[in-house]
Amino acid sequence: MQEFKQQDVRNIMEDIVAQKLDSVIDSLGCCTCEKCRADIMAYVLNHVTPRYVASEKGELFSKVQELNQNNNTDIVMKIVSAAEIIKERPKHDV
Ligand SMILES: [Zn+2]
After folding, report:
1. Which in 19, 32, 74, 82 has the greatest CB count within 10 A?
2. What is the chain's pLDDT, residue by residue, as a tens digit (94 residues)?
3. Contact in structure between 86 and 31 (CB atoms under 8 Å)
4. 25 C-alpha to center of ligand 1: Å?
């Protein structure tokens, strides 16, 4: 039987947006519960270009770090507009 090294194919924007969101969520003034956080994530990910990478776990981390240096302002702006929308219409009772 042949053994394959386990490879991940994933959208690293998910990691980048999650990291960004964690660092700014307290200043957004919106609800920070699991549901709203997931809604913000989904909104932002639908509005950024996905970056799929196939790599092993270690490499993945350095790619995330690398991209995290760039796209920041764009992602933060999208997080802010997502928070505005979710603030208006949270998917739960206040
Ligand atoms: Zn909420």
Report:
1. 82
2. 566 666 668 898 999 999 999 999 999 999 999 999 999 999 999 999 998 888 776 677 777 777 666 667 889 999 999 999 999 988 897 6
3. yes
4. 12
Q: How many domains does the chain have?
A: 1
- Centre of ligand 1 from the C-alpha of residue 55, in Å: 34
Confirm whether 36 is domain-assigned.
yes
CA distance 14 to 20: 10
For the question of whether the overall pTM of this predicted structure is more than 0.85, the answer is: no
Q: Which two tokens stand for residue 2?
A: 């042949």
Residue 62 DSSP class: H
User: Is residue 2 domain-resident?
Assistant: no
Within a domain: residue 51?
Answer: yes
d(CA 28, ligand 1 centre) in Å: 13
Residue appearing with tokens 């997080």: 79
Residues, CB within 5 angstroms of ligand 1 (ion):
31, 33, 35-36, 90
